[in-house]
Amino acid sequence: MLNRRRVLAIGGVATGGALLWGARESTTAEASNAPAASSSAHHEHHSGGAAAATAEPTSGTGTPPPFTPFSSRLPVPPVLRPVSTTGDTDVYDLPLKHATAEFFPGRPAPVLTFGGGFIGPTIKARAGRRVKVRYVNQLDRAATVHLHGGHVPPGSDGFPMDLIEPGQSRVFDYPNQQQGATLWYHDHTCAKEAEHVYRGLAGFYLIEGQDEAALGLPRGAYDVPIMIRDARFDENGGMIFEPSPMPTTLHTNGRLQPYFPVDSRKYRFRVLNATLHRIIELDLGGLEMLQIASDGGLLPEPLPRKKIMIVPGERVEVVVDFSAQAVGSKLVLKDVYGGADEPVMRFDVVRRAWDASRVPGRLRELPELPPATVVRDVKLSFSASGEEFAINDKTFDPARVDTRIVEGTTEIWRVTNTDPADTPFGPVNHTFHMHLVPFRVLDRDGKPPLPGENGLKDTVLVRPGETVRVQATFRGYKGRYLYHCHLQEHSDIGMMAQMEIV
Ligand code: C2O
Ligand code: CU
Ligand code: CU
User: Whole-model pTM?
Assistant: First the structure.
């Protein structure tokens, strides 16, 4: 195992890393066939006991400090307060700034933040009510901010070359003329996005739908956003960012394996996979999780699930009912993808509670989907050199428009991953993401979509050799928007393209 990791690390240097980046998500994917794959090795340490230390060597950069699982409480990111409000608009100020975060207690690590917290403050919006955010760049580098899942004018979409220089600020306009959903904002700087997001530049943006409150779903303190991320840490508890297939450790709302005290009642959890490249499969010790929403908001009806796969960029919302759990129970939420067994966090049932919330059998009608008039093929693959990733054999060029779309039309995109399932490091997955509009997943190689893919989506897993058909209506704005793989290491080295709505 150690040898294998060393080989991978050396290989990462020798080949420029591109192949390995593609393979990185596969260290978990492969684990089902090879349970001793590198990612599971990491887990053994964490699940091994109260004072388990991460004893993994990290390619000569030291061993992360020990930490005690479930010793720090899950922070709920603060809700950002508007600096002003008018009849139809809330205005916010949000600085991008350097700060420190304590993944390991007592060991502050430098991070890049929105507003000073390792995960940014939550912006709460309502459908139909406009938000304006003035992003003030107090960093030592240029950055930009994209609202993932946002239906926004092109000038507010955070184009990768449209940077906010240090000391500058920009106002982005979010009209919120869209369905209620769990969105997130994150950096989108050309070729630097993976590192910027990894080091902290991300936060939640929640849009409450028009009729959502009437449904009676858990609200307020019982509606909790959970951002799952990953990192490698050095001996001082600082983050290591280097393109290599090294295994990572999950952290949740900026804490390693936190605990969260809950009442014995229903909660709504909005889970975002903001890792660099890890597919996560959530398992709450077999307890049912009732999926109520995906990327683009509520599903037509709730879907009971025992395990939920969530890929980088995706959101899944669940209602978990702790009412049958005795006070004192502790339930560990784990990632079990591909044979992994890594705690994400723990729910500690601490008191009985009265619960008036409910989950109706019918959540909403999806907007109608007009018939498609255009069909396109979108191929995701290594470029010919193997050093970059490409869409339809082209690596990203901000000066080139790859796809022209007539505003208002509906199209089917056949998105194919032509990369291999059998590299020495496992399968090369991609997660396809489209800006501006949500899509519907029609099928996978002609077979039905995966569970939970029947709602509005903006990010979807495409496995090696697979063709996923999605259908979207490009309505609302004209201008240039991106589509790309949401494994940010892939998009950073070319797996990104531009569409122009005309
Ligand atoms: Cu969350 Cu263009 O991405
Ligand atoms: Cu996006
Ligand atoms: Cu990819």
Answer: 0.89
